[in-house]
Amino acid sequence: MSLGRYCKAFYEASVSLTSSLKLQDVLGDLVRNAAEGMGVKAASIRLLDESGKRLELAAAYGLSQEYLSKGPVELEKSLIDREVIRKAESISVDVLRDKRWQYPEEAKREGIAYVVCVPLMRMGTVIGTLRVYSEKVVQFDRGNMEFLLALANMAATAIYNAKLYKLVRTNWERLTREVWELLGRDVV
Predict the structure, then answer these.
(1) What is the C-alpha to C-alpha distance for residues 73 and 82, in angstroms, rounded to an integer?
(2) CA gap 182, 179 in Å, rounded
(3) Whether pLDDT at 14 is above 90
(4) pTM for the whole thing?
(5) Quick one: pLDDT band at residue 63, thresholds 50, 70, 90?
(6) Distances, alpha carbon 88 to alpha carbons 30, 118, 120, 121, in Å
(7) Which of 156, 151, 155 is nearest to 7 (CA)?
(8) What integer pLDDT is reported at residue 128 of this predicted model?
(9) CB 21: neighbour CB atoms within 10 A?
(10) Domain extents for the chain?
């Protein structure tokens, strides 16, 4: 893995994080940077739904629509994701051999042989996962894992910032309406 490729991907991810309020754009850039930085086929970010039982797709890069439509990622059936969520640790898996992978046939058709899954953490709580998908079984070193964890932290920060921005904007709009109503004027 080239240091230059890491640096370029990390730089681009940080620029995206600090220059856009559009969460979809930021997460899309982060998954692209993860795949390109690691030199792998694809990457995705999935977030826990409100029930805490499913991971919902938030962003993907390099995966076909057919693969993305394969079905829900349910923690009850996806033992890999359940381990990442519950233990807040990274897992590497040979998806064609490891029985914990929920969709091995679909992965095979997509040309995926190996996946690294890292947790998205915000204030000590796992909110989702960042995955990178490789066409071949590879051994990622500590530097690779730290790079992915840094991008996962960036994604968690972007999600948190987007929620804060939405809350601030909603409250600002409400307060503006209330002030205008108190003044007896219609909101423009």
Answers:
(1) 10
(2) 5
(3) no
(4) 0.79
(5) very high
(6) 20, 8, 8, 8
(7) 151
(8) 93
(9) 12
(10) 3-161
pLDDT at 4: 66
Residue 56 in this model has a pLDDT that exceeds 90: yes
User: In whole angstroms, what separates CA 19 from the centre of its chain?
Assistant: 18
Both tokens of 157, joined, read 């920060």
pLDDT tops 80 at residue 154: yes
Q: Classify domain 3-161 at the CATH class level.
A: alpha beta
3-state SS string for the chain = CCHHHHHHHHHHHHHHHHHCCCHHHHHHHHHHHHHHHHCCCEEEEEEECCCCCEEEEEEEECCCHHHHCCCCEECCCCHHHHHHHHHCCCEEEECCCCCCCCCHHHHHHHCCCEEEEEEEEECCEEEEEEEEEECCCCCCCHHHHHHHHHHHHHHHHHHHHHHHHHHHHHHHHHHHHHHHHHCCCCCC
At 13, the amino acid letter reads: A
Residue 178 neighbours by CB under 8 Å, 6+ apart: none
Q: Which two tokens stand for residue 76?
A: 């009850």
* 64 residue type, one letter: S
Nearest to 104 by CA among 79, 76, 130: 79
